[in-house]
Write a sequence for this structure.
């Protein structure tokens, strides 16, 4: 892995009047308009154009302090996620944990988290052939017929031989994005590094 875990700037490092940036509204410059030391809450107000009548107002609580920074991180790629990891750390770990042609499951990511629920899950075959040159991890949706022929299986079952898992959709590069404030590797809305969300 690359960097160590990124720690949020401490609450005491923020002062009223500071110019700051916030992960909840990437690209919008903010200024700190108030602090509530008892609740450890920082009030910020956007200073850029905003379509909301009251403007870009956000209260950052102690639990969400990772969203705030003095750094001008106006691109999401600079941000550590809620666990303090940068996207490259998450990608590196995924590559280290899997092998070429391995079958893995993907689960639906929501605004809250990713859970390993079989509803809407899908199995994928991984390819790292383009990772060294293009930084791409390809995922191909696969399915298999149940032993008794009664159902088409979309959730990987290791008891079914590898050769029976056949392509059932296009091979696409996994998308690196933020899901529920954690870096994810996704095929559409299906997150393949779902174990990072435990």
């Amino acid at each position: 892995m690359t960097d160590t875990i990124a720690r949020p700037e401490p609450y005491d490092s923020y002062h009223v009047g500071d110019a700051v940036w916030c992960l909840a509204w990437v690209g919008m410059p903010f200024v700190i308009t108030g602090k509530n030391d008892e609740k450890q809450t920082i009030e910020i107000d956007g200073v850029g154009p905003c379509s909301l009548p009251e403007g870009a107002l956000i209260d950052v609580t102690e639990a969400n302090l990772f969203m705030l920074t003095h750094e001008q991180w106006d691109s999401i790629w600079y941000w550590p996620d809620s666990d303090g990891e940068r996207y490259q750390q998450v990608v590196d770990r995924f590559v280290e944990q899997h092998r070429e042609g391995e079958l893995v499951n993907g689960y639906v990511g929501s605004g809250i988290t990713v859970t390993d629920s079989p509803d809407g899950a899908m199995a994928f075959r991984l390819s790292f052939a383009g990772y060294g040159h293009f930084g791409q991890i390809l995922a191909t949706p696969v399915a298999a017929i149940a032993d008794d022929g009664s159902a088409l299986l979309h959730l990987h079952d290791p008891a079914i031989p590898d050769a029976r898992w056949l392509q059932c959709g296009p091979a696409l590069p996994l998308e690196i994005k933020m899901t529920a404030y954690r870096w994810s590797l996704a095929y559409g809305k299906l997150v393949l590094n779902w174990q990072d969300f435990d």
Observations:
- Helices lie at 87-97, 131-134.
- The chain has a mean pLDDT of 92.
- The longest helix spans residues 87-97.
